[in-house]
Every structure is written in C-alpha cells, then in structure tokens.
Write a structure and sequence with these properties.
- 83% of the residues lie in helices and 0% in strands.
- The chain has 172 residues and is mostly helical.
- Helix 1 (2-16) packs antiparallel against helix 2, helix 2 crosses helix 5 and helix 3 packs across helix 4.
- It is globular, with a radius of gyration of 18 Å.
C-alpha cells in the first residue's frame, strides 16, 4: 500500500510542478506535514543533496524521499510517480503542438502560467530560508553569497564549493 501511496502523492506533485524541480518544494513541504516520510530538516537536506547531484532536482528529491520511506522500491515508485505526468503530457502536447503552435489562446495560457511558476519558486525559497537561516552567521553568509552571485558572475559550482567550505570552516 505504501508504494501506491508514494506513487499517487508524487504523481500529483509531478502533475502540478510546472517549471522545474524547485516548484516541487512547496508540495514537498505539504507532504512533510501530511505524512511522517521526512522531517523539515530532512527536506532541507534533500534539497541540498538534490541541488548538488547530477539530474533534475525533482527526480532526485522524489528518489530520496521514496528511498527513505520504503527503500529501493519506494524510490522507484516515487520517481515513476513524479515523472509519469510529464511523460504523458509531453506525448500529448507533442501531438497537438503542430496544430496549435500559432494559436493566440495557447500562447496566452503559457504566458499566464509563467508568473505562477515564479511565485511557487519564491514561496519555496522563503520556506527554505526560514528553516536554514537560523542564526546571524548563516544570514551574513547568505547575504555575502547573494551579493557575490549578483556582482561576480561565476559558475554555480564555484558558489556551491565556496558555501560548502564556509559551512565546514564556520561550523554552521
């Protein structure tokens, strides 16, 4: 039964997570409140791991949560559940795209979805900030990194490594 529950919950997330993996984060916050599959602290750790490993963040997080809940089979069911809506929708959209790609209403719908995606990502960012910015030191490190990213455009890998080193040295 747990496998079907994992599939169902992650299928719902996959169905509404339009715009990328970070959009899954608000849904995962809801899952952490609804089930005891993972805590908020574990969720922030999942996000950190998923962001630093290759592959789509949503898939990595579904796999991590599924594995923690029900082992390898849980990881498989959660991951398939998350990916299934996208596969179904992509196949359906590919068939319709040629017919409707110049349609004004289709373009209007897609343009209307974009602000919702930005709002979901900002909402997720605020929730993550509440959990992870626990002290003055982490807040200052966040502000310095944010300013550095804004003014010195370097690879995201550089900033991830810099953050990891700072976290180890400062023990935060």
């Amino acid at each position: 039964m747990i496998f079907l529950q994992l599939f169902y919950e992650f299928f719902k997330i996959g169905l509404f997570a339009i715009g990328g993996g970070l959009v899954t984060v608000p849904f995962l916050f809801d899952l952490s409140e609804k089930y005891d599959w993972f805590t908020l602290k574990e969720l922030t750790e999942m996000i950190a791991i998923a962001e630093s490993t290759p592959g789509p963040i949503g898939v990595n997080m579904a796999t991590f949560a599924g594995f923690g809940t029900a082992g390898v089979w849980g990881a498989i069911w959660a991951t398939v559940g998350l990916v299934a809506p996208s596969v179904i929708i992509i196949i359906w959209v590919a068939k319709l795209m040629d017919k409707y790609k110049c349609n004004r209403r289709t373009n209007a719908v897609l343009n209307g979805i974009r602000p919702a995606v930005v709002a979901l990502i900002l909402f997720a960012g605020m929730d993550i900030a509440k959990i992870t910015l626990t002290g003055m030191l982490s807040g200052v490190l966040f502000a310095l990194l944010l300013a550095s990213i804004r003014f010195w455009r370097k690879s995201p890998i550089f900033y991830l490594c810099l953050s990891a080193i700072a976290g180890i040295v400062l023990q935060i």
